[in-house]
Amino acid sequence: MFVKCGNVSIEGVSRSTIETYFYIKELKLTFDIGKCPFHLTPVPNVFLSHMHGDHAMGIYYYLSHRNLAKMVPGKIYLPEEALKDTERVIDSFSSLEFVKRNYELIPLAVGDKIEYDRDHVIETFATDHRIPSLGFLIKKKKTKLKLEFINKSQQEIIEMKKKGIEITDTTFEPYITYVGDSTIKPVDEYDFIKQSEILIIECTFLTPEHFDQAEQRKHIHLKNIIDRAEQFKNKYILLTHFSMRYSDDMIREYIFNHIPESLKDRVIAFF
Known about the structure:
Strands 1-2-3-4-5-6-7 form a seven-stranded mixed beta sheet. It has a seven-stranded mixed beta sheet with strand order 8-9-10-11-12-13-14. Helices cover 28% and strands 30% of the residues. It has one domain (2-269): Metallo-beta-lactamase, Chain A (4-Layer Sandwich). It is of the alpha/beta class.
């Protein structure tokens, strides 16, 4: 699936137990990697929310094909608890192939901050799933004229800049949030999830008979989203990771018929 959200394009697949990845071309990264379709091979940065197979199984394929193409290994960010086992898996596959695979695994903990490029930082936050997991927040650089200079003329501002006076404030504001697999818990704990311009959030279960299963399996149910509808200030809300028990048409129809009007022009069923 492909959607355009403001200045970024998001391409991916997201079906529970099958495959999940979200490739953002403009930022040269993918959140999760699924089975690693071939077009993800050149992507230099992979952010793994957790190591369930539908989100992370493609890692060895990714490394193998980058190696064949004589590319650098690529940076793979992952929860720190998964580091040793992931190293063992890669090394075991390499041994089976009688090759030496170079790789760069970067372990992350909750609250880590990555100076990603000159305009973006990426921060990790806690999610609530059955195995160690992380969410990712991309913050975008914003430069604003300081309040004390707002009423100055253009010429006055030019003169101050010539004198080396700092006339702007630089901040990093919530831009894209990827929750990964989780219960609704982080939505209640972190305001930035509800304030970022683009929110990518799972919604594995839709219908009332699956509400208890969502809690048991540590996933989000559509009711969790509906109950908090007025809290979401996001411009784009991508609901993802739907159970395979629902057809594509059923997902679209059910969501449209049940979410409140305040969400209908912002929610995208992404699968």
